[in-house]
Amino acid sequence: QKEVEQNSGPLSVPEGAIASLNCTYSDRGSQSFFWYRQYSGKSPELIMFIYSNGDKEDGRFTAQLNKASQYVSLLIRDSQPSDSATYLCAVKSDSWGKLQFGAGTQVVVTP
Amino acid sequence: KAGVTQTPRYLIKTRGQQVTLSCSPISGHRSVSWYQQTPGQGLQFLFEYFSETQRNKGNFPGRFSGRQFSNSRSEMNVSTLELGDSALYLCASSLRTAQETQYFGPGTRLLVL
After folding, report:
1. What is the Cα gyration radius of chain B?
2. What is the rounded distance in angstroms from the CA atom of residue A56 to the CA atom of residue B16?
3. Which end of chain B has fewer CB atoms < 10 Å from its terminal CB, N or C?
4. CA–CA min distance A95, chain B (Å)
5. Which residues of A touch B31 (CB under 8 A)?
6. With an 8 Å Cβ cutoff, is B74 touching chain A?
7. CA atoms within 13 Å, Cβ hemisphere of A92
8. What are the pLDDT tens digits along chain B (113 aa)?
9. What distance in Å separates the CA atoms of residue B88 and residue B36, rounded to the nearest whole number?
10. Which residues of B touch A99 (CB under 8 A)?
């Protein structure tokens, strides 16, 4: 079993709709959770981080964390073609720098 | 503030050779982590350095090594290259390690022939 799991997609979303991405993790001691966006041929770019249970909103993005269910999600509202990318969920389980990444979910926003 | 820089951006080597990649973190960042990204395995953690000390290491063979200098710049070295080492090597920096977000450099794309 992989430690961080994501649906690989592609997730096809009409422009203007909400994209919903899910991520589950296996280590109950995980402390910090991150969402990165990666365009093809580019390096990952940080979108959001979340440490506490509940929702965290930043512009069109909302991260949701449920530690009891070991589940973290990302919602993208009013999806735009520029949101077409691979979204990587990353989990930090200790106080040092190791991030464990999911395989990523490819999102395709169709005009 | 300048971002994370990595050099070189592209590299072609042959099997058996060795390679050294360089990473300069964001000014003021003292933690540098290295990751390997391949289509089959995704992003995998190699190691992390903080204040010139390796704090954490992933599940990679000893051919992969690294170091950090007093100015926080870091290098990673891969000896006796294998075809499977072809990948995008990413460096990420953060202010300190606990709960700090990591910012990635553009990566070095290594092709082993």
Report:
1. 13
2. 48
3. N
4. 4
5. 97
6. no
7. 22
8. 679 999 999 999 999 999 999 999 999 999 999 999 999 899 999 999 999 999 889 999 999 999 999 999 999 999 999 999 999 999 999 887 545 789 999 999 999 99
9. 6
10. 33, 35, 43, 45, 92, 102
Residue among B35, B43, B44, B60 with most chain A CBs within 10 A, to mutate? B43
3-class SS of residue B14: coil
Tokens of B65: 């090594």
Exposed, middle or buried by CB within 10 Å (0-12, 13-18, 19+), for B14? Answer: exposed
Amino acid type, B95 = L
| Residues on chain B touching A102 (C-beta within 8 angstroms) | 42
CA A101 to chain B, closest CA, distance in angstroms equals: 6
